[in-house]
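re: that chain from earlier
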Amino acid sequence: MKPLAAITNLTMVPLSLLTYIRVGNALNHLFTTHARGQNQNTPATSIENFLMRFKKGSKPIRNIMAEKNKHRQESKLPQLLSTFFRITNLPMPENNELKKILSFWQTSALPNCIKDLAFKFLYNKLHTNTRLSHMIAENDIDRGCTFCSISKLLPAPEETFQHLFWDCPTSQELFQKIIENYIPELQRLSAEKQKLYFFTGTCEVTFPLITQITRIIGLYLIWEMHQKKKILTWQTYKINLIYELRKVSATCHHTKLGLHTGFHIAYNWDDICPETW
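^ sequence. v structure.
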């Protein structure tokens, strides 16, 4: 850019020093933007003009914004589930596994009530008795396990997240029945690896999607029992498990869920109807 005196003589416009500096910055920005557009074989454009190209609710702009936030979200994955892995005493997996764990609750085949449970389960949003006791005066909330109190296993242990969904004898018995009847591959694994599978869906053994759905429905029915303060027998629990699976299977094609013939026969759900709770 020419000196201030040369520009004044050339244009016969008396520019102040401040105006001269501002014009210089504007020209530098213009030339830089133009050069960048030439290097990328695309015309330089302002942010306003760029956004105006997209219609309201446009998928391209959503994809651009999603890609922009993708790396930020991935870096925060361990933070999102840090509480879950702390209260369950499970090891924190790598980011690739964390993404699979977090995305499972969005599975389209799942009913909304089970999606809601899966989301709250991972983000520690379920109101167990110990958690409620921190929100309400302790004298009004019994911190003991609901199932243990019903079963007269007194004094009832505190109803923590880990106890309710795994350590409690009632939950443990039902989960072992699910393993025995429907996921026998888990029988040769340690109790810690069984818990890892039921809580996160990750395992050294590869299972079809329907097995993953079975485990989350199993957790959902445990929570429903807790909410209704009622312990189901295995037979009743099994009937409700299969009924929920039938609802899931009705939403998508069998091959998508991995409902091969052997699995369909094993569940024997053709004559199943739900029992009244």
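The radius of gyration is 30 Å.
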